[in-house]
């Protein structure tokens, strides 16, 4: 199977409360969780889309910084 192209984009996640979950999802026919991080209030995580990571899911109150702008999660 040929590897899918990667754009290498980064996102920055800053937790606005304790217990924010950042979940990496796999590429391919079956999308699955492959990595989870739990952030405390004020912690920052820098994540990258790769050949293995096609999506990143955020649970909890956080500010996301991307090349497309700043996004706030809803309550």
UniProtKB/TrEMBL annotation:
<keyword id="KW-0694">RNA-binding</keyword>
<comment type="similarity">
    <text>Belongs to the MtrB family.</text>
</comment>
<comment type="subunit">
    <text>Oligomer of 11 identical subunits arranged in doughnut-like structure.</text>
</comment>
<protein>
    <recommendedName>
        <fullName>Transcription attenuation protein MtrB</fullName>
    </recommendedName>
</protein>
<dbReference type="GO" id="GO:0006355">
    <property type="term" value="P:regulation of DNA-templated transcription"/>
</dbReference>
<dbReference type="GO" id="GO:0006353">
    <property type="term" value="P:DNA-templated transcription termination"/>
</dbReference>
<dbReference type="InterPro" id="IPR000824">
    <property type="entry name" value="MtrB"/>
</dbReference>
<dbReference type="GO" id="GO:0003723">
    <property type="term" value="F:RNA binding"/>
</dbReference>
<keyword id="KW-0805">Transcription regulation</keyword>
<dbReference type="Pfam" id="PF02081">
    <property type="entry name" value="TrpBP"/>
</dbReference>
<feature type="domain" description="Tryptophan RNA-binding attenuator protein">
    <location>
        <begin position="7"/>
        <end position="74"/>
    </location>
</feature>
<keyword id="KW-0804">Transcription</keyword>
<dbReference type="InterPro" id="IPR016031">
    <property type="entry name" value="Trp_RNA-bd_attenuator-like_dom"/>
</dbReference>
<dbReference type="InterPro" id="IPR023558">
    <property type="entry name" value="Trp_RNA-bd_attenuator_dom"/>
</dbReference>
